[in-house]
Amino acid sequence: MSWPDEEWKVGLPAQALRAVLELEQRLERLQKEGRQKQVQLDTLEAVMYKQRQKVSGEGGHPTEGAPAPIQTWPGVEISRKGPS
Predict the structure, then answer these.
(1) Roughly how many angstroms between the first and final C-alpha of the chain, as a whole number?
(2) Cα 68 to the chain's mean position, in Å?
(3) One GO BP annotation here (predicted)?
């Protein structure tokens, strides 16, 4: 994260500057991870919406019959569970 005005850092001891840099890097990493998680969530919601539309278009109810797998991205599969 780059502060518009970084003058507040002037005069800080080296240890404090390192700590500030580490915190700024951690913040950037966590923000990036948050954006990636949001993209994954949006993708899953879109897939779920399409799957529900497909099931309702077939005249069935989402809980009837065998659960239909939802393919998201390579290596990740989520299955909707029917009534127990």
Answers:
(1) 49
(2) 23
(3) mitotic cell cycle
Question: What angle (nearest 5°) sits at the alpha carbon of residue 60, between those of residues 54 and 65?
Answer: 105
Spacing of C-alpha 12 from chain mean position: 36
pLDDT for 50-77, tens place per residue?
999 999 887 655 555 555 555 556 655 5
In 3D, which of 51, 45, 49 has the Cα closest to residue 70?
51
Entry pTM: 0.55
Cα 16 from Cα 24, distance rounded (Å): 12
Q: How far is the CA of 16 from the CAs of 23, 43, 71, in angstroms? A: 11, 41, 47
- Quickly tell me which residue has 């099931």 as its tokens: 55
Q: At which residue do the structure tokens 């991870």 appear?
A: 33
Q: How many domains does the chain have?
A: 1
Within-domain flag for 5? no
- Domain enclosing residue 44, as ranges: 34-60
